[in-house]
Prior knowledge:
The protein has helices spanning 13-26, 39-49, 90-95, 107-119, 126-137, 187-193, 239-252; strands at residues 4-9, 30-36, 53-57, 78-83, 99-102, 144-149, 152-157, 161-167, 170-175, 180-183, 200-204, 207-210, 214-218, 223-226, 231-233. By secondary structure, it is of the alpha/beta class. The relative contact order is 0.09. A five-stranded parallel sheet has the order 2-1-3-4-5, sandwiched between helices. A five-stranded antiparallel sheet has the order 10-9-8-12-11. Helix 3 links the parallel strand 4 and strand 5.
Amino acid sequence: MSSIKAIIIDDEERARRVLSNMLENFCPNVEVISKCSNVPDGVLAINKNNPDVVFLDIEMPDYSGFELIGFFKEVDFEIVFVTAYSKYAIQAFEVSAVDYILKPVQLEQLENAIEKVGQKVSALSMFDRLETLKTNLSTNQIQKIAVPVGDGLIFVKTDEISHIDADGSYSKIFLVDGSDIFVSKKLKYFQELLNGKGSFYRVHRSHLVNLSFVKKYNRHQGKVILENDIKISISRDKKVAFEDSLSEFHKSY
C-alpha cells in the first residue's frame, strides 16, 4: 500500500500525541505530516500539505470538527472523526458512510479506518457524505442513507423507500416512484443500518418494510399492503412484534 499522508486535528495535546504514536508504531504506511490544536490551524495545514486523510475531533473551542468543510469548496481528502461523545448518534455516521473512531482509540478501529482510506472508497463523494451526515444529525430520525453501488455511492432519502427485499447475498431497494436499486449487500446490512429508527421493520427473512408506507395490514392473512399495492407476507413468529411496532410507530407520528 502506498504511503498515506495524515493530519491530526484535536484540541487535546495528549489525544494528538497518543493517536500519532499509534499511527507511527502500528501503521507504518501512514505519515503524520501535521498535528493541529484547532480548526483554523488545521485548514492551513490541509491547504499546505494536501493530506490523504484528516483525523478530526468533533468538540473543540471556537469551531467544531463539523465546521471544517465550510472552509473548502471541495473536499478531496478523507475525514475520520475521532470522538469520545456517543451523543453524536454513531448510527448517523454509519448510514452516511462517514468513518469514525471512538475515544479511547482502539487499534483495530484505527487499522480498519486506515484500510478504508487506502482503498480510497468513494473519496470523490466525501463532501456529499458529510452533508448527508449533517442532515441526519439535525433530527432524531435518519433522513438519508448512503447506498453502495458499482461505481461509488448514491444517497437515498429513507422516506422514498417503500421496502427492501433480500435476493440471496444481494438486496433490492424499492422506491416509492416505482424504481429500484440492486445492491451487493445482504438484507441484514440494511436491517442493522436502520435498526431503532422506528419506520423500518423486518417482517420476513426476505422483506424489510417502511412502516410509513403501509396502507393496510391483514392480520388473518398475515400480509401488509403497501401504498403501491404490493402485498408482503409477514412471518408467523414476527406477527406480534410487528403489530407492536406498527402501533408504536403510529403513536409517535
